[in-house]
Fold Omega-hydroxypalmitate O-feruloyl transferase.
Amino acid sequence: MGSLPQENPTLVEDLKVTILSSTNLYPSEKQERRSMFLSNIDQVLNFNVQTVHFFPANGCFSPEMVAEKLKVALERLLVPYDFLAGRLKFNHGERRLEIDCNAAGVGFILASSELSLDELGELEYPNPAFRHLAAEQPHGHALDQQPLCSFQVTSFRCGGFAMGVCNNHCTFDGISFHTFLRNLAALASDEPLPIPPCNNRRLLAARSPPTVTFSHPELIKLETSPSPQPPSSIISCKTVKLKHKLFNLNPTTISILKHKAQGCKYNITSFNVVAAHLWRCKALSSMRIKGADEETSMLFAVNLRPRLKPPLPASYTGNAVLSAFCSAKCRVLEEGAFAHLVEIVHEGATRMDDEYARSVIDWGELHKGFPRGDVFVSSWWKLGFAEVEYPWGKPLYTCPVVVPSQDITVLFPAIGGVDKGVNVLVSLPSDDMEKYTRLFCEFLQ
């Protein structure tokens, strides 16, 4: 794929999927009903995330056998992950969402497709039709009736299959979802849990009293309402007509970016140079909207687990990520040294220490809000979902089902793993995309 943008391939819009059966799975052991506290980070992530895990045909494991093994493993896993079988509810007294761990179950769907895996086209290119492989949640259900998680196993004509997962983001961040998948794979192999989950979300509770010690320009307050309504989602719908392109940064082009960053006073990482490159392209492609002397900002998620004092357990199941931010004038991104931009990105991440993170959480307690910026880099690059070893092998490819957004640049792993580089999905108005594409290539020269 090189480092050049990929023109939109002809995507398969109809995967010819037929639902064969749909049922609920429940914990294999009776659990005591309880309410699970959700942190202020969890509160604003009340929307569904869909991921699809593609597997080639395996002569020892038919899709039907895989489905049966997954059912048994999931029922066992719903014991330590009891919240996953629960339902969201709004605590009017506390004015916040929580999970009623009531063992109401998770969805499990069996489906088949008339297509083979090869007929799906390039798996690396985000195809909105993949949502039909990931157990879409029914619309219109009341909050306390909506499953927090559903699974779907779809068999293909070639004998390969897809495991699709649709879960509410308040249940997991990317790191804890990876841990969940590792635990699922272990139970499917009749092995003990490698990483028992830590379900104590109060580890990220606000301080009493809340103490905001920073200004937090990266956060925006929600509109207040006199009635006790659940917080809005951070996902917004825009009607601007966008053009979508997939760019690839292979190991050679990432090395070029690292070389251009020589002179940076910090350790030069792959993520920091890629993020700086994408930020510069996005900011300068929209300078007709923002002048050269106006500020532009970029947000990206950082893992809090090792940053807090004391550190959170690595097995923490909730959303232990916050948005680091960096900002600069458009003129700096256009004329400044690339090494300086990488330094700004680095400093944005290192700002997120224990005190800053606690201040963000306390800000959420007082104001109810979510991050804002000119671009958010959402990275699935190194989450490692495709490295999970199931009894039937590792996935051929794993990807989220993405709804393209002008404000969000999504990083995907390339087929073959981290060593093969990273794919970048960009969505912009047509004129901006033309300039972005030119800048993307020029800055790699």
Notes: Residues 250 and 421 are 4 Å apart (CA to CA).
